[in-house]
Amino acid sequence: MSPSVCLQEMIRVIRGARTQGEERGVIQRECAAIRAQFRQADNGGRSHNLAKLLYVHMLGYPAHFGQMECVRLIASSKYSEKRIGYLGAMMLLDEKQDASLLITNSIKNDLSHSSQHVQSLALCTLACMGSAEMCRDLAPEIERLLKASNSYIKKKAALCAVHIVRKIPELGEMFTPSAHSLLSEKNHGVLHGAVILITELCERNPDNLKQFRKSVPELVQIMKNLVTSGYSPEHNVAGISDPFLQVRILRLLRILGRNNDAASDAMNDLLAQVATNTDSSKTAGSAVLYETVLTIMDIRSESGLRVLAVNILGRFLLNNDRNIRYISMTSLQKIVQTDHTAVQRHRGTIVDCLKDQDASVKRRALELSLALVSAANIRSMMKELLLFLSTCPPELRSHAASGIFNAAERYAPSQRWHIDTILHVLVTAGGDVRDETVPNLIQLITAASELHCYTVHKLYRALISDIVQQSLVQVACWCIGEYGDLLLKGECEEITPMQVTEDDVLDALETVLQSHMSTPTSRGFALTAIMKLSTRITNNVDRIRSVVSIYGSCIDVELQQRAVEYNALFKKYDHMRAAVLERMPVIDRNSSGQTNGDPSVEPMKEFNQPKPVQGVLIQEPANQVCDLLDLLGDSNPPLLVTNDHTSTAPNSTNSTSSNVQDNLLDLLGGLEPTPAPSVTVFEKGGLSLKLQCDQQTETSTTVTFTASNSTQSDITGFNLQAAVPKSVQLQMKAPSGDLIPAQGCGTVTQTVLLSYTNKANLKMRVRLSYSSQGTACQDMVQIDSFPSPAWS
């Protein structure tokens, strides 16, 4: 290809290249020819060569060597060369390039040019790539052009002023008077630029709000003229008069009317007129209506106007365009807390959106449906949500299950309904629920004493039909172990009676133990259930002893340890087995989510420091347990057995054994565990993040982050990321979940392991990502010091 070919010929040859290598060769040859011609002092085809170079740049190939040629062409007196030069400057230069400073003087000269087209080129270039220094130098020229008589220039100057205000906010005062005067213009382009400029001035400097609120009547009149004007082919888009200008004015009114009664009152009638007279059948009309709704919801509008806005969003839900349905549900999600009754009217339409094929629409519909659940509609809404859970995609199943659990816990009409709902979720999506679901359900079952028989029968039937859902398997094993005697009686009024034998129950639990689908945790639940049944059945105790002894040599250490301990109960402490394996008491959950089995709660202190009561003195025992105590010099004093122990023990030997174990547990009775101190490192918008150092050595630290939520709605998609200096190694464990329940009903924890050689360099930067009320949020936290742990 000859280097003197025209631009069209070069484009044809490049497009005709059959391979990437052939295309690269063509471009390299052409670039070499362009470089050679750039070096010539007198070259009449400079603009032609730069145009070809800009096309090469658009294809992604390097074209930086044409920057100085742009500067030369901008300084030319020919409009054709200036046009290519300014275009090249906008494409090849930016504010970081030193060459951009060389065109400042040329732009200043062209801003005073007699031709409006040359002035327009300079204004467009400054608005596109002007640096802070260029903007500061040329701001007076832009302010002068805002007062020009030519509407074409004033439109360009207004947009250039927007760029200057974004670069240097303190220069906004220079453009404030001109922005006011531009609102009296009739040209739509000038009005559009003026509204954008005023919006930018108000957002950059809130002090300007008071001044520009005086222009609200003028903006309202401009908007009314647009709404009531007849057909204008110059500005009409799908039957809407200049929707772009209408949208910009509505956004500005939203800013001016926020938290201001006078401004809000001045625009209420206009917003009602726009909401009722705008046709939503076209996309342009829908855009205007959407901005109207956002403005109504953001200002201090009348209640009837807010209901009208919610009804518009309800109509959007019936639109065939999925994008419109999506933004409608996003807006409803934001206002459901403040206008709950108005949103409830569209509950049926929102629930129908759960069947949409689009995953994004489904997710928004799920979040909004969960927010609409109340005590009045809990049964009907839960029916729809459970139906959705059975067919929803895997990526939404966890979120749906968590939302159903929270709604059921908050609005459950009865304990039986609550238990049935959770069991339905476990049967449908047991593998996608949070880790705390199992202990929470167990706590609920123990508290409902009148439903023990009903629950154990229902869980047994679920267990023998399917053991894939591990959460369901764990709860079922626990209930069978606790209330197996009720299952064997076969007497239950709430459910169809089912005759179950001891062998049937043991077969079901052994199936869990032997199944390859069972997790180690599920096997542990099953083994414990089998052991507990040894005190609730009479004919198969030998079979239970055999099963337990088999798992004493299991490869799973946790399961092996349980089996060994249970074997010891059978062999050495058979007299204590009935007392050890009796039913668990009712598990009460305190405000922090801990149960009465948690070692950090208050009753443990009473156990470690028993009150002195009347008892009997036992002579020095000679068993192995006392030999163990003698290693610590603790077996010589006489042992005191309380009345509680003597009343439950059948003989003195049993009393001795029970008392020795109490003393063994009380060896560290004077060393009460001190909880590790925690510090709040982040608190914003109801989200609180606490840091706690659990363990600390000279070379490592274990840190636990605990996130809680005090707002009225759940925080979803919670993600915590951490960064440390290069001298520190970081290992993050999996978080406990990604949903933080509302009103402090639960927390999300994440453990971080830090290894280092120099503790002085220990710092951490944490980034939090989450969604609150449908809005994606991201925050950064710098941690420069860590609290000391309770045990070093």
TrEMBL record:
Keyword annotations from UniProtKB, A to Z: Cytoplasmic vesicle, Golgi apparatus, Membrane, Protein transport, Transport
Topology within the bilayer: Peripheral membrane protein
Compartment(s): Cytoplasmic vesicle membrane; Endomembrane system; Golgi apparatus
Gene3D superfamilies hit by this protein: 2.60.40.1230, Leucine-rich Repeat Variant
Cellular component aspect of the GO annotation: AP-1 adaptor complex
GO biological process: axis elongation; central nervous system development; intracellular protein transport; vasculature development; vesicle-mediated transport
Residue span, GAE domain: 674-787
Pfam families, per the entry: Adaptin_N, Alpha_adaptinC2
Protein family according to the UniProt entry: Belongs to the adaptor complexes large subunit family.
Record protein name field: AP-1 complex subunit gamma
